[in-house]
Amino acid sequence: MREMAFxxxxxxxxxxxxxxxxxxLPIKSAKEINWRGSAGGEDYEIARSENVNxxxxxxxxxxxxxxxxxQNGPLFKDVTAIPGHKYYYKVRSNNLAGTSExxx
Length: 104
Fold this sequence. Notes:
alpha+beta; 27% strand
């Protein structure tokens, strides 16, 4: 679709940029994880750790922020979280040009 838009305008497509780093929002529950999306991001990965400094394990891939908007719910639900455990999360964005840095 992107290439067709440039073709209609009679222009050559510009190279894609690696997406900006997303910003994870305050987490109230492992079942309600949200973030502010990144410019140029096509999908997201989310990672979890029981230690603030890691190591982090990827627990979600190919997450669409657009789909969640239409579902009127959180962007991600950590269904594998054990009640009573404290977790730390981070998220990053992907597109055809590459992968962003992890959120803070």
